Amino acid sequence: MRNKTTIIAACAMFIVTIAVAAYARDTNAGRVVQKADATQTAKVELTDNGFEPSSLKLKANVPAKVTFTRRTDAGCAKEVEMKDYKIKRDLPLNESVTIEFTPRKGEFTFACAMGMLKGKLIVE
Fold first, then answer.
1. Gap between the terminal Cα atoms of the chain
2. 47 forms bridges with which residues in the sheet?
3. String of DSSP letters for 19-54
4. Beta-ladder partners of 108
5. 99-116: per-residue pLDDT in tens?
6. SS3 content of the chain, % helix, strand, coil (to 5)
7. Which of 37, 100, 39 is nearest to 68 (CA)?
8. Distance between CA 13 and CA 42 in Å, rounded?
C-alpha cells in the first residue's frame, strides 16, 4: 500500500511539473524585447511543428529585428516570407537570419514558401 501511494504521489508531481512548464512556455511565447535604442527584437524557430512561437506582438512604428532559425529540413520550410512587407528570405538549416523592418498597425502573416506553415504578427 505504501509503494502504491508513493507511485501515485510521484505521478502527480510529474503531471504538475509538466503543466507548469507548459504554462511558462505559453506565457513567454511571442515575447518581444525592446532594447534601449528603441529596436524591438524577437526570435522564431521553424521546426517540424511550424513556427515557434506562432505569433509575435510588436509595437507599431518601432523598428523590429526578428531572427528566424530553421531547425527542420522539411521541403517548404526553406524560406520565410512576409508578403505584406514584401520580404522574402532564405533560411539555411540551423543558421539565424535576421529580418529588419518597421511594423505598421494590424495583423500580418509570415509563412514558408508554400504558405503551409504560418505565423502571425500582431502589431499594436
1. 57
2. 50
3. HHHHHHHHHHTT--EE-TTS-EEEEEEEETTEEESS
4. 121
5. 999 999 999 999 998 999
6. 25, 40, 30
7. 100
8. 33
Chain position carrying cell 521541403: 75
User: How confident is the model over 36-91, as pLDDT tens digits?
Assistant: 568 999 999 999 999 999 999 999 999 999 999 999 997 788 999 999 999 999 99
pTM for this predicted structure: 0.71
- Can you identify the CATH homologous superfamily of domain 31-123? Cupredoxins -  blue copper proteins (2.60.40.420)
What's the confidence (pLDDT) of residue 75?
Answer: 78
CB neighbours of 45 closer than 8 A, spacing ≥ 6?
51, 52, 68, 69, 70, 71
